[in-house]
Amino acid sequence: MTAGPGTEEAQPVTSALQSAPMPRKVTAKKLIVTPIVIVLALIGTYVWISNVSLDPIEKNSLSGALVRQALWQHIRLTAYSTFFVLVIAIPLGIALTRGGVRKASPVATAIANLGQSIPSIGLLALLTFWLGIGPRTALVGMVAYAVLPVLSNTMSGLRGIDPQLVDAARGIGMSGFGVLTKVELPLAVPLILAGVRNALVLNVGTGTLAGFVSGGGLGTLITNGIVTQRTRVLIVGSVLAVALALFVDWLASLAELQLTPRGLEES
Amino acid sequence: MPEGDAVTGATIELDELTKRYGHSAQPAVDGVSMEIAAGETVILVGPSGCGKSTCLRMINRLIEPTSGRILINGEDVTGIDPVKLRRRIGYAIQSSGLFPHMTVAENIAQVPKMLGWSKSTVRDRVEQMLDLVGLDPREFHGRYPRQLSGGQQQRVGVARALAADPPVLLMDEPFGAVDPITRDHLQDELIRLQHELHKTIVFVTHDFDEAIKLGDRIAVLREQSHIAQFDTPEAILTNPADDFVSGFVGAGAALKRLNLTRVRDVGVVDVPTAAMDDPRETVVDRLREGTSNELLLLDRRGRPYKWLRTGDLALAKGSLARAGTPVTGHVSRDATLRDALEAVLTDSAGRVPVTGRRGEYVGVVDMETLMNSVHELLEADRMAAIEHRHDLEEMRAHHTQEQLEAGFGEGGR
């Protein structure tokens, strides 16, 4: 009764630091090193290819138009497959953590696991029997392959939320939908985004296999290189695929930084 | 918005509220009936697992009762949309339950926003609520929960629960996860808030001392939420209904009773006083006139300054400035008798000045006054309890007679 009201506030809160917005956790490695490595690798390859004499087959395979087309196809494949992965995996992950559907979650996880444990090239080969060859088959294979990380991260993100918070949200009068959109999903964002990033990188990788089923993309360059025994073609295709994977990962990490709700950082 | 002393709370009536999980034979909560007046603070207290939380969570239907009814302000809310119901009831839980991805302001604004208040009203309300719970709006507005101490988080939790000015506030061990000193502050804060707001508060705790401190009435619950005793803290302390209640009250009921009465409610004695600026002769005269051999010198603002005994002036060779012993401790009129007792026990001469709001002298408490007050209090409690018991017995007798008569009436037909 006699103690002043200030005692409690005297707890170790470094208020000077905290009244200013927290600096975001951006490591220099993420922001600068990755793009530098990508650019150096691309320039190095370009300079090297420009300075060696290429035989007609190589010249034909490495023509600007063809390489650009392969790259563009690859990007499109990645973008489309990631889009479908998000549209399938996130709602599915949400549904599998709600009410009665929760019981089905082991089955769903098992199926998704199956998709990933089959070797991707095997999966693509099997799909050609069903869907024939072409970009569509590649797309289906890529989606089947990348659903798992997003699905499981969405589910564990939603499951990992402190039940007290959900209780508080319901207790102050949020509807089930309100609890999901205002509390659960924002809190699960970091994990979901990590899953998406994982899927993106996986998709760039699996995308190279599209070449085997005439799905286009950088895989075409690699396959051509192998078939025609032209190592340089093979190397250009591989370097481009690696650079694209790194670049996509870099973009996704930026998005992760941007989209993670403030207040969750460093927690 | 609450103004003055108007009661803004609502009555709550629980009618045979029961919760049974699955097909288990034992219900978790078995037929709780309780009437809570508007503006009353009722504490549900009991050992862990007695279903007190379940009981509380049935009031806003976070847990749907298996049977029974809940009436708020006479309206049966057992069947209405639970989401709408909860927006009308404040809810605060242990470890605050603040949303970590929202700022303090966003957390507090949740319910008003859901109720469709305009943006500017919500903004004003948030500032007002922060002020109410003693946090500076400018400083705390934009902070995230993890940047707050446990006590501050709990304050924000209470602010969020009160944001839409609900008549009823449910609190589920809200101060369970903070350290004892902070808890004490938060309890004082809640008492102050309730003094201003007059909400109907239902508060769950397992800490009986907390129950005594905060409750207008306390319901001591045993397993399956059977009410062992539902009465004022005074009555429970002096007259526990059975061994279970007295076991829960624990040792030192008389000491705990001291926490319930404040110094301003008991008599203080007067001692002769003099102002520091009074001439020496006046002081000496007053000392001589007085019944005791002591005099309290007050400073220019009327605050106790030092004690002066008959011999002191001679010892200090007549200098008023050097004579006497400075006053070391004092208690405010709002202090509990327990605080006063503590102060009296530590004072070398066994008496302590009582001060008013601005620290000015009001009177003195000593061992004798305290003892007398405590005896009177306990006696009064005992009488009240006997009367209460008598009333109950009479009512029961009346009831039995009525039943008997009714029985005979039917038999005669």
Structural Rg of chain A = 24 Å
Taken together, the total number of domains of chain B comes to 2
Provide the CATH architecture of the largest domain in chain B: 3-Layer(aba) Sandwich
Using the alpha-carbon principal axes, give the shape of chain A.
Answer: elongated
Tally the helices of chain B: what do you get? 15
CATH topology of chain A: MetI-like fold
Number of strands of chain B: 17
Q: Which CATH class of the largest domain in chain B is shown?
A: Alpha Beta
Over the alpha carbons, how many angstroms does the gyration radius of chain B reach? 27 Å
β-strand amount of chain A: under 5%
Task: Give me the secondary-structure topology.
The complex is a heterodimer of chains A (267) and B (413).
Chain A: H1 15-19, H2 28-51, H3 56-61, H4 64-95, H5 105-117, H6 120-131, H7 135-159, H8 163-171, H9 176-207, H10 218-227, H11 231-259
Helix pairs in contact in A: 2-11, 4-7, 4-9, 4-10, 5-7, 6-7, 7-9, 8-9, 9-11, 10-11
Chain B: E1 12-19, E2 29-36, E3 41-45, H1 52-59, E4 67-72, E5 75-76, H2 82-87, E6 89-93, H3 104-114, H4 119-132, H5 137-140, H6 150-162, E7 168-172, H7 180-197, E8 200-205, H8 208-214, E9 217-221, E10 227-231, H9 233-238, H10 243-249, H11 253-258, E11 273-275, H12 280-289, E12 294-298, E13 304-309, H13 312-315, E14 325-326, E15 331-332, H14 337-346, E16 351-355, E17 361-366, H15 367-412
